[in-house]
């Protein structure tokens, strides 16, 4: 084949393949079989292989390419990506409609209503009709450059349809990257089969795939997109949202066809009702409807706040609810002594997860809702939080059990409970096994002393067998006391004792967090450690001194001062510091305030030569990264040392970003660490 012939054939094949991709991925109406498509695609690839200089960036073969990134670049959006004012209450929509009508003083009002897609918001920029970049929403002004990942989404055209007359020189659009439910379930099954963690919902799966550093991983994730807005455009006479959608569709972008033009408030409420009814049948998650004023000229009259436009409103669906039966009501005693009534229920599926416990919040709530054992109840999950019991579902004619009363004594230590407002507490902070159990787990948690092997079960055993009666006893444990415990053998007993010994050299900030001082989380722990530098200075501080610490207000200051003033706490601290725990200086870091590695997940595998693994872990954590032991699709980086073993193979299979030790050290240095 001559070069001239190749050029001609390539151009024909690309045009044809693009057309079939559009029909398949954007319009959902393929005209040829997969085999026929594959045949065209193979021919295209084989000609491109023979004539590499004829490969174009927007050729259908060029979706997946490039090398894994270390971090994403930040890029400015063509225009701010605003969010929306939202509510689940029809009255809020009524008020929105009233405001709009008032501002437009009697002019006819026309809206476009669209499904509110539950995915990840992105900006796509086309220059001369070619996809030139794509970014996440970020803070609305700047986002992360995810161009390479977005190119792998088949429903995103690399080239707009049309010619120079019909395609704008610059077009920036906004859309939502989603994962269809079927694809999501398949992906999760795959992950579970590989012993990896599944995603909690399609939104997380989509957002996670979009933020993969290696586009080859993104390419294996079944992402989809719908676009719904123009952020910037050159030479356009588009003057309404309806025209926006029509134009986007004409350029070959995927537009949701459930959008409607609506003139009245009743029409809007009706649309919302219909969408809620078909919510479970459309194959992807929507969490409400978005109402937009149609004519662009009218929008200008209403304007925007810095956060959201006044001409649009998100009318959200109420959180998912289900009905089930309460089998038993128990109380849970938390780490701080708070006693929470919990309903144990017949298991029921709620927004994709099976739920069998739901919180009844506090004494007042139980009384107000009058929930009793045996009752039928409506439960809900709002967002990703713990399920709640909303209300009792009446069953006329059924005899109900006796009224539920929160026990008078702590179920764990029998101490009389005390009431504070609507809440109930066990005041026996240091002697209550339930509190001690959670305190132990908290002390051993990753951001505190990080004691491997000290989970719920072990903490329960240690407390029940009275091997630990007070926190400091943990550090006096000997392997001989553990070997006979359920689930323990010589090796595991040795390991736990060793892990405790290792964890006993700890930085102040971790120690403070681990103590479980009321109101002191990771951030406050760090701020206190930085401010005072030593535990003795912190213990000597009064509320006024404490209020000088960043993020510590009068209430928190009082709680902290109160904690250190309590004689039983003083005694506990003295015992801890008496040869049991040693406070060490933080790893030598020029603490980087906001690091590029913040939130990134690392897995360390194999032997490291330049630093101890522990130290590597501390370095990463000081930069806000997380170190986990299991490779999963959520892993951002794998650091492979000597003899890395099966984790490296798993990482390669998943096409994760793999660093050797030298590159890892360079990465730490480039993040501001002196290593
Ligand atoms: S319009 C100014 N339309 O909902 C216009 N947003 O805060 C703002 N969303 O994160 C957005 N479906 O990503 C619009 N059909 C739709 C949408 C939609 C989902 C998301 C958007 C934003 C959130 C609202």
Describe the structure.
The protein has 675 residues and is an alpha+beta fold. Helix content is 36%, strand content 20%. The chain has a 5-stranded mixed sheet. Strands 14-13-12-15-16 form a 5-stranded antiparallel sheet, covered by helices on one side. β13 (339-350) and β14 (353-359) form a beta hairpin. The chain is globular. The structure holds 2-(butylsulfanyl)adenosine.
Average pLDDT over all residues: 90
- Proportion of strand residues: 15-25%
**Shape assignment:** globular
- Calculate Rg over CA atoms: 30 Å
Are any ligands bound, and if so which?
2-(butylsulfanyl)adenosine
Number of helices: 24
- Please summarize the sheet with the most strands: 5 strands, mixed
* β-strand number: 24
Neighbour order of strands in the largest sheet = 2-11-10-3-9
Distance between the termini: 57 Å
In the predicted model, the low-confidence regions spanning at least 5 consecutive residues are 587-594
Share in helix: 25-40%
Secondary-structure-derived class: alpha+beta
From the structure above, extract its key features.
24 strands; alpha+beta; 20% strand; 5-stranded antiparallel sheet; globular; 675 residues
Chart the SSEs and their pairings:
Elements: H1 3-26, H2 34-50, E1 74-76, E2 86-87, H3 90-103, E3 111-117, E4 120-127, E5 130-136, E6 142-144, H4 147-151, E7 170-178, H5 181-193, H6 202-210, H7 215-219, E8 224-233, H8 241-250, E9 260-262, H9 265-278, E10 286-293, H10 296-302, E11 312-316, E12 320-333, E13 339-350, E14 353-359, H11 363-369, E15 376-381, E16 388-392, E17 418-420, E18 423-425, H12 433-443, H13 456-464, H14 479-482, H15 490-503, E19 505-507, H16 508-515, H17 522-532, H18 535-540, H19 543-546, H20 554-565, H21 567-577, E20 582-584, E21 601-605, H22 613-622, E22 626-628, E23 637-640, H23 646-653, E24 657-660, H24 661-670
Parallel strand pairs: 2-11, 19-20, 21-22, 21-23, 23-24
Antiparallel strand pairs: 1-6, 3-9, 3-10, 4-5, 4-7, 7-8, 10-11, 12-13, 12-15, 13-14, 15-16, 17-18
Helix pairs in contact: 1-2, 12-13, 16-17
Bound molecules: 2-(butylsulfanyl)adenosine.
Residues 82-84, 114, 116-117, 121, 176, 228-229, 290, 309, 312, 314 line the site of 2-(butylsulfanyl)adenosine.
